[in-house]
Amino acid sequence: MNLNKSREYFDPSKFKDEIHIIGCGAIGSAVAELLARLGVENLHLHDFDKVEAHNIANQMFSEVHVGWPKVKAVHEICYAINPAIKITKHGKWEGQELKGYIFMAVDSIETRKEIAKKHQYNMGVKGMFDFRMRLTDAQHYATTPKDLELTKVFLGSMNFTKEEAKEATPMSACNIALSVAYAPRAIVAIGVANFINLVKNNNLKKFIQFDLENMILDAF
């Protein structure tokens, strides 16, 4: 893969850690695609779901992928970008201990809490990144287990129920969560940039949010 446009900024040959993407929908598929274009070669994909027709509107998939397992479809997309990429496909994350960097992109807030609690004292994890999105607004949270106070804040951001999350999510008449493609792409670009800044400079933003309808962006 020709990385002449980005290697001087981020050289993936110097990056040896595992990256776990848990959930391969709107957020997870876009995270994998951006990391593949950066030349990152050691990805673990975790998802048990299949691509449905309505996923195409805001996820990385195309019509040819309908009916495929999402991990298989994301693998194909990333391999087409970089044939040197190494991808390990998993089903649902079921409590196993991970290492490296974790991108949480599952719909279930309970699963996200479980992942964060499982790894909050795991020094083999160098960074955890979480994403929330609605229709045109989204939030990104991040921490490193090396910073216990920051990890407490990270866990505290998950202090709500799936019922409260669903109530706050704009839904269609057919009970499908509404989303436009640029919202997940934008929050993923921010999250991946936050990851790169952590790797390169040990600099991490703990919280970033935007509202694209009103063009508002905040970062802390």
How would you characterize the overall build of this protein?
The protein is an alpha/beta fold and 220 residues long. The chain has one domain (16-219): Rossmann fold (3-Layer(aba) Sandwich), CATH 3.40.50. The protein is built from six helices and eight strands, in the order E-H-E-H-E-E-H-E-E-H-H-H-E-E. The protein has helices spanning 26-37, 70-81, 109-119, 148-156, 162-167, 182-201; strands spanning 19-22, 42-46, 86-90, 100-104, 125-133, 137-143, 207-211, 216-219. It is globular.
Q: What key phrases describe this protein's structure?
A:
220 residues; alpha/beta; Rossmann fold; eight-stranded mixed sheet
Compact summary:
With 220 residues, the protein is α/β, with parallel strands linked by helices. Helices cover 32% and strands 20% of the residues.
Structural class: alpha/beta
The outline comes out as: globular
Q: Main sheet, how many strands, which sense, barrel?
A: 8 strands, mixed
Uncertain residue segments: none
The number of helical segments is 6
Cα-based radius of gyration, to the nearest Å: 17 Å
Measured between the Cα atoms of the first and last residue, the distance is 35 Å
